[in-house]
Specification:
This protein is an alpha/beta fold. The protein has two domains: 102 residues, no CATH class; 253 residues, Alpha-Beta Horseshoe (Leucine-rich repeat, LRR (right-handed beta-alpha superhelix)). It is 40% helix and 15% strand. It has 14 helices and 13 strands. The chain has a seven-stranded parallel β-sheet, with no helix packed on it. Strands 1-2 form a two-stranded antiparallel sheet. The chain has a two-stranded antiparallel sheet with strand order 3-4. Helix 2 runs antiparallel to helix 3 and helix 7 packs across helix 8. The longest helix has 24 residues. It is globular and about 75 Å long. Pfam families: LRR_6. Keywords: GTPase activation, Leucine-rich repeat, Repeat. InterPro entries: Leu-rich_rpt, LRR_dom_sf, RanGap. This is Protein C10. One of its GO terms (cellular component) is nucleus.
Amino acid sequence: MVLELERALQLQDELIQAYQGAQEQLRLYAQQIKDRADPVAALKAAEAREKLLLDLQKPVVARYGFEESAQGVKEAMFEYARMSGNNLVIKRNNHMERLIAAGEDIDYYNGVSAQQSLRNFGTRRPVPQSQFPLVAWEEFQKSVEGRLLPVPRHDMLSAQRTEELVGACKRGDLARAKALLDQGSCLALNVGFQGLGMAVKVLAQALGGPQTLELDISGNCLGPEGAKALAAGVPQALKVLRLNVARNRLTLEGVRSIAASLPSGLEELALGFAGMKTGPAGAAALAEKLPQVTKLSLDLAGNQMGDDGLECISKALPKSLELLHVVLLGNNLSRRGFFMIDRQIGDPLHEHHLPKLQPENFVKVGEVEVTEFKEQADGAMIRQVEWQKAI
């Protein structure tokens, strides 16, 4: 069965109408959120909700010539997934995702690399490629023609084993999760946008004791309690940690938990805290726990930390740094704040000079977002912060 664009749009519109009238799925979703502390109860609510959504989809796709079954739903979704480049299809996809998310924030920072699993649709759709790959998914390999082509990383947990792992965590099956993650001294996995919630506790307990950990757990609604559970399982013997916890609504409490869990013996750290909106206090909490690494990548986009927050981080940067990559978008920085780290690199007399960090090894993404002047009651314009504080 092949859908033309017009029929595909009609199918999407009917699915949207079905979702809008499904108040029971909203109730089950609320129950799932309420039962986060009880993984078994939360899983039952999630499974009941998925079954309800599937039952809504079956008669709809049957009207378009597909089998009235789970397989028929899957085939229908793949048909309009082929048209995913069409703006009308994209618009409807986004609307359906919002309805299924029951009002939850499903927007994702475009620098977060993730493969969002839409189990309700019976298919997977790729999220835009990351421009700041905290956890790289691909490596390059020569093709038979001699070209370099991106291929899945050979050392990353496979898609099939990842799906098994997510299921084991949601069931509370610690033994199975440990067996799947028994990868030796190096562990790399992507469980981004999988709806783990408090099932992250099982994942954290299963991590074991690798020396290198690359974990993308972005977009999983962890919250502060999930952050605490994850922090409790961070292996303390790590030498390399690449951790992406963006879009998890950690709040200041969660950021503090993750920061406090960073092993002191790390040599390389890549940390994704995008979209936390924790302000200067969150930046200060992270700065207080930064380890003495040689390579550091920080995705701090959308944290609204301002000049004061970035000043805390800049002062805490270790003298041992040889490579630094930071994303500073959405942080209300003035010119003073935006160039604060640059001064530490270029001025040997700076109090917080970074002697081993060369300009070519410093990458910064962002822009000046606020004026460094403010108007007083009498109309006079003064600097927000005296320049002497930045020297």
